[in-house]
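Homework-ish question, so no full write-ups if that breaks the rules, but can someone show me the predicted structure for this set?
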Amino acid sequence: MIKFNNSYTKLPEQFYGAATPSAAVMPRLIAVNDSLAKFLNIDLSSYSQDDLTGIFSGKLIPSGAEPIALAYSGHQFGHFNPTMGDGRAILIGEVIGSDGLQYDIQLKGSGKTPYSKRGDGRSWLGPVLREYVVSEAMYSLGIPTTRALGAAETGEDVYREDVLPGGVFTRVARSHIRVGTFEHFASRGDIQNLKILCDYAINRHDSDLNDHADKYNIFFDRIFKRKLDLVSKWMGVGFIHGVMNTDNTSISGETLDFGPCAFMDHFSYNKVFSSIDTHGRYAYSNQGRIAVWNLSVLANALFPLLQREGESQEEAVKRLESAFDDYSKYYDSKWLEVMGKKLGLFNATESDRPLIGQFLNYLEEHNQDFTNIFRSLNTLEFVDKEFEKEWLLRLDLQEKTQEEAISLMNSVNPYVIPRNHQIEKMIRLAVDGDYTLFEKLLKVLQNPYEENVSNLKFTLPPNNDEVVKRTFCGT
Ligand code: AMP
Ligand code: MG
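A: Not a homework solution, just the prediction itself:
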């Protein structure tokens, strides 16, 4: 049984369109996430295997579900697109998790919706498995993210450059409200629905603000901080989202829309994987700045609600502008905190920036693997003796033992991450019907901070012939 508790369908009709999953022809279940199902109070044992295959492929609509596709707009690579929406995703309903909070259950790749335009609404198996493994890895790394509840093959061919097997991914999110959802109503001058959306989102994500007199400003501030906290965490594990468009920017602070995302192997400040990011707009080290830019778009959209009573438009603009200076500083301080911990510093300060910079420059100049080099610092040794000396002196200055510094580092420097070449290999094998690597990766990535020599091969960077240079969007 899934106890649905749907709320989005009660919003005005401009918020969504009815949609029926249609991609499953001869479905086959790939995976169900038992522990997440349990957390969501879903009793899997009440379903037959056929029912589960049906549910996770979109063939069977569980009772109480109300399938819809969400309307939104968004800035894609800086350009506003007023007509977007879920083109290949269908929200089947919401449930209450064991924490008392509301969660969306969404099928991705289950067929056309009112927002599909010329797209087919389908997904091939590759992006389904990639999002499954990477989002679950992200969760185990302790980074806020949407999660994987299930995956199925549809039995239907999907036509891309090749003919590929189709798949459906079932994703769980605190909500699928994006910066682009606010832009959708703001750009239409529809302040009434903008306010309805805002009140709905506050009730869903920040219900303690429901009755606060300045709730919109505080809400906005929280979204900002959640997003910048998230990006600083991405930076700490070398994650590059790849398509940080405003329609892919969740207001819950969860990592959303795993398209051409990737974790980098050797460190490079300007690393880009996405085949469509030709100018490096979403390069590794640009992510903080881009997050602030995306949130400036949100500020514009929310402006009619952010202006306080008795405040002139000019005053409100001025206030928000100065808030943005603080937000950039906030991100810088979060980044410093994250990178400091990776070097064993409990309280990194501004004066530690050169030391961190020196280390990262070394990694870039010497083509060093980001994850493995950071992890190896738990020996308190480093090949560059000049750095090592300064670093150990700095560690000595803090009132912590070496053991404490080491355990701090081990808690933030993962032993194993989802490496691109392993992900690609996993997808290649699965397309041929072999899911052993998919299952192995899921298992190995469940304890990413734990040193386990039997998983050594998953910690290795790619050989020259395994390097993944480009990643592609989820379509
Ligand atoms: P993305 O940036 O990958 O999240 O996608 C951007 C937009 O394109 C979203 O509105 C998607 O719903 C839509 N889209 C992507 N792939 C497809 C597809 N195969 N069919 C229909 N719409 C799609
Ligand atoms: Mg998207």
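Now go work out the reasoning yourself. Hint: Residues 8-179 form one domain.
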